[in-house]
Design goal:
By secondary structure, the chain is an alpha/beta fold. The protein is built from 11 helices and 19 strands. The strands form 5 sheets. Strands 1, 2, 5, 6, 7, 8 and 19 form a 7-stranded mixed sheet that branches. Strand 7 and strand 8 form a beta hairpin.
């Protein structure tokens, strides 16, 4: 890594920083300034709307964040076709195009993007401690870390599911229901999320068949009753999807089902299938260091993005098991960036990075980023 501008400007005063630094960092400070220069202000793990928004905000605060975006950068929106509910695009936008715009915007303001995978992390316990992030055999160090690894849709893992994803198979009725007006559709799942998806989809589709592998539903009574009240929702149990098949146009045409008790086979002609069997937060990287809930989502303090480790923040679908929208993920990425900025500015054990805005950090984002003197001059 090269010498960051803020780190370069702190070289003269590094002896003062040694006195302030925690014991775990003093060795590095005392053995040479070059090691001090290698400590990033912020490392963002993951991309998607949360990661790139965090990168945009921290970049505009002159923190030059390092973004380890993963090989499949862009998150779940890379698997989405038309996005019609993201503000600012009245004609809609393709998911991959939206992610490219967010990525380019973050890079424009100085985010350093590394298209690679984080192998492991070692997160400090004390305020002011330096966190370590390994990409392959390379160790990166930072005063703050923003976790934005997201969550993956749980899949049925049946033939045709992957092949027809985006061509009739979807994982978000809230996102895609409007494309299935007056269509024959199915929802696969038996929990509250499945009922909520079915109720929303019923406003557009001609018929919604909720397919569940057991006679009993995991959904709460109130959600189940609401689904049953909809005239165009049918609950079909105990059936499981065996496969999805395309029609002549290459799009989804048939769902083949099997009765889990009798083995009876059944076909349903459909043009839309929504899989609602849950999500898997990608939190294994920090399991054992960051506090997780029973479903594996990262726990944060109140309405903030602060985790149980000082200087570590979490945003997006890694935290959110309720809304799971691109716009809410972007909003929480903004929050994580501001939380990281406040931590860097207000933690006594952390030397404030040069070039950070003064005053209200949130208000500072409304204006153009303050210019920073060239470190070589």
């Amino acid at each position: 890594m090269g010498v960051g501008r803020a780190s370069f400007q702190r070289r003269i005063g590094y002896l003062e920083l040694t006195a302030l630094a925690p014991a775990s960092e003093k060795t590095s400070l005392e053995t040479g300034v070059s090691e001090m220069a290698e400590v990033e202000n912020t490392i963002i793990i993951g991309s998607g709307p949360a990661g790139y928004t965090a990168a945009l905000y921290t970049s505009r605060a002159n923190l030059s964040p390092l973004v380890v975006e993963g090989f499949a950068w862009g998150g779940l929106l890379q698997q989405t076709t038309d996005v019609e509910n993201y503000p600012g695009f009245p004609e809609g936008i393709m998911g991959p195009d939206l992610m490219m715009k967010l990525r380019e915007q973050a890079e424009r303001f100085g985010a350093k993007l590394e298209t690679d995978q984080v192998e492991r992390v070692q997160l400090a316990n004390e305020p002011g401690g330096v966190h370590s992030v390994w990409v392959g055999d390379t160790e990166h160090r930072a005063r703050t870390v923003i976790l934005a690894m997201g969550a993956e849709h749980k899949k049925l893992c049946v033939p045709g599911e992957d092949e027809l994803s985006g061509r009739g198979v979807s994982y978000c009725a809230t996102c895609d229901a409007a494309f299935f007006k007056d269509a024959q559709t199915v929802i696969v799942g038996g929990g509250d999320s499945a009922m909520e998806e079915a109720i929303f989809l019923s406003k557009f589709a001609a018929k919604v068949t909720v397919v569940h592998r057991r006679d009993e539903f995991r959904a709460s009574k109130i959600m189940l009753d609401r689904a049953r009240e909809q005239a165009n929702i049918e609950l079909l149990t105990p059936y499981a999807v065996e496969r999805f098949e395309p029609g002549e146009n290459g799009a989804l045409s048939i769902a083949k089902l099997v009765n889990t008790e009798t083995g009876e086979h059944r076909e349903i002609p459909i043009t839309g299938a929504f899989i609602a069997v849950g999500h898997e937060p990608q939190s294994s990287l920090v399991d054992g260091q960051i506090e997780l809930d029973e479903d594996g989502y990262v726990k944060v303090e109140g309405r903030s993005t602060r985790t149980n480790r000082p200087g570590v923040f979490a945003a997006g679908d890694l935290v959110d098991h309720t809304y799971r929208q691109a716009i809410t993920a972007a909003g929480s990425g903004c929050q994580a960036a501001l939380d990281a900025e406040w931590y860097l500015r207000d933690t006594p054990e952390v030397p404030t990075p040069e070039g950070m805005p003064v005053g209200d950090l949130a208000e500072a984002q409304w204006a153009a980023p303050a210019p920073v003197a060239d470190a070589t001059s």
